[in-house]
Each structure stands twice: as C-alpha cells, then as structure tokens.
C-alpha cells in the first residue's frame, strides 16, 4: 500500500485545515481548540498570518514525527514566529527553522548534531521543498533512468566474478524486469564473487533496494531479518495525532475507508515489529558468497541500506571512499504549499546496526577517478577490486587502514540531503 501525503489546503467550502486548527482565510482568524494536544502544553496562537501558521506547523509536526523529537523544546520556548518571521523570504524562513530543529540532537560519539551540515545551513538529512507532494512523498522526478548502468562477467582463472553497477533505485515497477534479466543472466555462470558498483548511487526506493538484496541472497536466507525501520516512541505508540490531517491514499491516489471513516497517516502501523522486513528470495542466483562494493561519498541512503542488509550474511568488503552516512528515512507531510521531509525513522540491520551516521569506512581506500568507464577491468576501482579478489593486494586491519592512494581532501562530495535521493518508504501499512 502506498502512502500519499496529500495534506490540507485552504478551501472556501470546508475552511481546510492548515495544521491542527481550522483556518477561515490566509490572515488572522479564530480557530477551534487544538486536537490531541496535552492540556498543559502551550500551543501556537489562534490568529496569525499564513507564514506564521506555516512556521507553527513545521515545528509542531516535528514535535510529533521527527526521529529525535525527544530533545525538542516546547513551542513557547522555541518561538518560531518570533525567530523566523523576518527572514528575507518565506522559503528562507521555513528552511532556517528546519535547520535549527535539526541541530538539537547530538551524536554522543562526535559531540556534534546528527544532522550537522556545512552547506548553507541545510540539515544533513531533513529538507523542505516547494510544491505539495501527491505521490506519497516520493521524489519520483529525481529517481529516473535505468537502475543498471553496466554489467559483465569476469573469469579469473577458476574464479567467476559478476559485476553490476547500479546508479539508483527507481520505483520497482519501472525497473523490476530489467533487474530480473540482469541477475538471471549472471546466475547462469554461478559466480562466487559479486562486485556491486554503488559509487554514484544516492538512493531511492527502499522497496527496490530490498528487491536487489533478495536477488543476491540465496534461498537459505528466506525468513531471516533483512532490516527494520524504527520510528520515534510518539509514532510507535500512536500518539502522533497531528497526522490525522494527512490523508492516506491507495496506490491509485484515492482515499480509503478505515473503521468507518477516511484513513489518515495517523492510522499507520509505526511499530518496529510492523516495519521489520525479511528475506524472500527472488530470481535464480544462488552462488554468491563474497560481495565487494565500490563506494564513494555519493553512496548514500538506500544504497547504504543495501550494504547494511548484506553485512550480517555475506563476506562484504568496501572499496573506494567513505560513504555519505544516512541511516534515516522519510515520509513527507504537506504544509501549505510545501512538502516537508523530517527524518522520521532509523534503519537497523539484522544485527541491530545503524551507526553509520558519519559514513561507512572502506576496507580499501582509493581515489575515485573522473569519468570512469564502468565495467572496464582497467578502471582503477574495478581493477583494485579484482586484485583484491585475486589476493594480489591485501586488506589490512581496520585500525591501520589500507590505502592505495590517499586523498588529501576528504570533504564529502555530497553536502546536504537534497543532493541525494533519500530513503523513501512507500509501503507503510495501516494498523490491523
């Protein structure tokens, strides 16, 4: 079941809901008592301008659905109207507010915010964009093209190596047949070694990354945990009442009935048990034992999810540069004319691992070449990976590292969440 976050608009006939309140016009008005808020909690004023209501809404949505909502202050302390109403433009005001919201939660390992970014005060993960999403929060326009950029089989003495370059994870319906064909062709030669080239893969649909994992995994893994999505306690315990104003639509974009009324995102099952996914073998490939993955600072989100899912069950080696580091995912909410993507769930693999906020370190560090010919055995990254499989070079213990070429400037190429596609979950399910 897809999630479509159609949200609420101003409507003369129904006085549409902007947030938790009924709005009569774009400017000041009286509103009903807030829905689902604690009596002692101070909420936003009942009158104001459209921009002021939007500032209120961004913060109050974060208070319920943001992954790290436990550290956010109360409305009267945060004072969104007072802080941001005088920005040069309304989009600047909203983005400045979102950035400040994202900086409260500190990573205890680094002492810095999880969403720290050095790019124009934009959060590392959360983001806001102009335009209301009508496709379930999926940035489909940015997830296009072919998933498979290149493939080949390499015979090295008695070793059979399969190579597949994946550029992104488009919607599964658009790429499933191509993925099936590629991996079925690979299966004929029964390779023991698989090289996945994810150097330019910024992510996409979780469903597609999961499908690739099921194409790689043998049937013996069926029923074993692949990964889980962990939402904050407010969502898990069904207390995110604000989501009553975000309609839940079916795959055709239609509202559906739930317990005698229209379903909303508040009716979704956000429990960890309800969002745990297990292996379910696809295709005919059964022979893979060792997985070598070419990565860079552009490797992010759903591509990192794929790596994480494979680690507990395969001998996985990373070659290239440290990945971006995005173990969180999103679903969009519509506020006025904007789509807001607050980091909303943490991705954990079968071993409960999710700690790659600062990126996954490669086992073998090499410099990414400019304009590589993917699949060419002489291309530096692929050449190094083949040499690693052939044991012509060795991976040293992690503490000392193994470096073919040391990059003098290790600043990430990806500088904010808008540069990558994100971890997009389009299969949220209603509670039973």
Automatic annotation (TrEMBL):
Listed GO molecular functions? endopeptidase activity; serine-type peptidase activity
Which residue intervals define the domain Tail specific protease in the entry? 123-367
A Gene Ontology cellular-component term: outer membrane-bounded periplasmic space
Extract one GO BP annotation from the record: signal transduction
Query: Which InterPro entries does UniProt cross-reference here?
Result: ClpP/crotonase-like_dom_sf (IPR029045), Tail-specific_protease (IPR005151)
Protein name stated in the entry:
Peptidase family S41
Question: What organism is listed for this UniProt entry?
Answer: Pedobacter terrae
């Amino acid at each position: 079941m897809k999630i479509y976050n159609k949200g609420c608009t101003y409507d003369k006939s129904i006085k549409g809901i902007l947030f938790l309140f009924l709005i009569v016009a774009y400017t000041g008005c009286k509103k009903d008592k807030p829905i689902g808020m604690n009596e002692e909690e101070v909420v936003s004023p009942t009158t104001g301008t459209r921009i002021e209501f939007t500032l209120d809404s961004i913060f109050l949505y974060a208070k319920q659905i943001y992954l790290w909502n436990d550290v956010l202050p109360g409305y009267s302390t945060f004072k969104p109207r007072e802080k941001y109403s005088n920005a040069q433009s309304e989009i600047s005001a909203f983005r400045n507010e979102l950035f400040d919201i994202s900086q409260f939660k500190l990573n205890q390992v680094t002492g810095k915010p999880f969403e720290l970014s050095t790019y124009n005060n934009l959060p590392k993960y959360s983001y806001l964009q102009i335009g209301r999403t009508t496709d379930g929060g999926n940035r489909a326009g940015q997830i296009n093209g072919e998933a498979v950029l290149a493939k080949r089989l390499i015979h090295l003495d008695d070793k059979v190596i399969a190579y597949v370059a994946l550029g992104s994870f488009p919607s599964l319906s658009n790429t499933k047949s191509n993925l099936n064909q590629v991996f079925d062709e690979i299966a004929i030669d029964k390779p023991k070694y698989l090289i996945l080239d994810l150097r330019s893969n910024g992510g996409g649909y979780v469903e597609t990354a999961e499908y690739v994992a099921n194409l790689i995994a043998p049937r013996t893994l069926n029923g074993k945990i692949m990964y889980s999505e962990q939402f904050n306690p407010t969502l898990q315990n069904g207390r995110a009442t604000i989501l009553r104003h975000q309609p839940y639509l079916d795959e055709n974009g239609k509202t559906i009935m739930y317990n005698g009324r229209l379903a909303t995102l508040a009716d979704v099952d956000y429990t960890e048990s309800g969002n745990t996914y297990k292996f379910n073998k696809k295709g005919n490939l059964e022979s893979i034992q060792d997985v070598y993955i070419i990565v860079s600072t552009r490797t992010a989100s759903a591509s990192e999810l794929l790596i994480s899912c494979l680690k507990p069950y395969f001998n996985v080696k990373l070659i290239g540069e440290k990945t971006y580091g995005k173990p969180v995912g999103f679903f969009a909410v519509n506020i006025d004319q904007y789509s807001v993507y607050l980091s909303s769930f943490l991705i954990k693999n079968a071993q409960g691992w999710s700690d790659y906020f600062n990126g996954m370190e490669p086992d073998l560090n090499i410099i990414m070449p400019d304009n590589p010919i993917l699949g060419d055995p002489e291309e530096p990254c692929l050449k190094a990976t083949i040499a690693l499989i052939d044991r012509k070079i060795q991976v040293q213990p992690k503490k000392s590292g193994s470096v073919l070429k040391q990059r003098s400037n290790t600043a990430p190429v990806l500088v904010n969440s808008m540069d990558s596609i994100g971890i997009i979950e389009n299969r949220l399910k209603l509670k039973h």
